[in-house]
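[Automated response] Your request has been received and processed.

Submitted sequence:
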Amino acid sequence: MSTAAARPSRRGAGDHRAGVSAPVVWGEHIFLTASDGRLDDQLHVMSYDRKSGKQLWHTRLFGTAPTDLYPPGGMAVPTPATDGKHLFALFGTGDLVALDFAGKPVWIRSLAQEYGPFRNRWGMGTSPILLGNLLLVQVDHWSQSYLLGLDAETGANRWKTDRDASVNWSSPVALKLQDRTELVLLGTYRAMGYDAATGSQLWSVRGLGMQCIPSPVALGSTLIACSGENTMAIRLDGRSGDLTDSNVAWKNKKASAFVPSPVAYRGQVYIPGDSGITQCLDAASGKLLWKQRLGEQYHASPLAGDGKVYFASKEGVVRVIQAGANFEVLAQNDMGEGIVASPAISDGQIFIRGEKHLFCIGKPK
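Generated structure:
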């Protein structure tokens, strides 16, 4: 990314549908989701050519149970997941779909019809994640919350675990620990760990806020959890039960992230506050390394790579920071439109979904 006005970039076609899912990039494909219609029940999945930005295909679906929503995102807030063969997209209407790379549906499930509509004040925000052939969906809302593990090939349930949680917007993270893989979820005052093979709950840690929006991030076996003014590091060592008194490495109530997720990179944790105040902490100790204002407001989560950390503000300015204990701004670019969706990095290029356009920034491939 360059500070020059003629930065190397390509701009995809404009799109005025609602949607703040992050771009998903695989090979020459870029995928986005969106929704529109009077009830935001008309669902869209689009694929774009990586080199030209031209639309390759557009699949239209119909939502079964439209519900409350975050207006910029409509029913398309969750970011899809992909295994390179299929795209797995979740919508706020309660619909979960697998498409092949030509846009043809492989399977479709209405979680709303099976388990009840999503009842969440600002709509569904959690994104599905893939763990091998296991597709995982966290549904935290006013009705019975649950964690669902599905076979990615068929869409059939492998297991379903009810959760003692209410409204949250966080997404799970998977960690390999000793002889098992754990899924970590944040929500309703606690972080919880689950066995990926069975869905059974393994442990919990108290101390988070009532409603969690940021997703957890990990550096090795240390998990960083944020929920407003409650930020903590949890050591994961294979223990089970209530780990509140034994496995919390540090807490920092002054490092607050309400909407964006933090990013952990090269021993540091970067925590963007909604008001633009960003903090960098030492991941091992929680010690504050620097604190700076970077713009006015952030909804998009930062991302890191190549020794840099990228912050995209809601006002549409992308700032590039040198990763490390010393604060240094490397570049700053105004994209000319607001940014709510989190950017994506792939093979030396950064992909940014603005309010109206999809941008590709970097050297042409």
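Summary generated for your ticket: The chain has one helix and 33 strands. The chain has a mean pLDDT of 93.
If you did not submit this request, please reply to this message.
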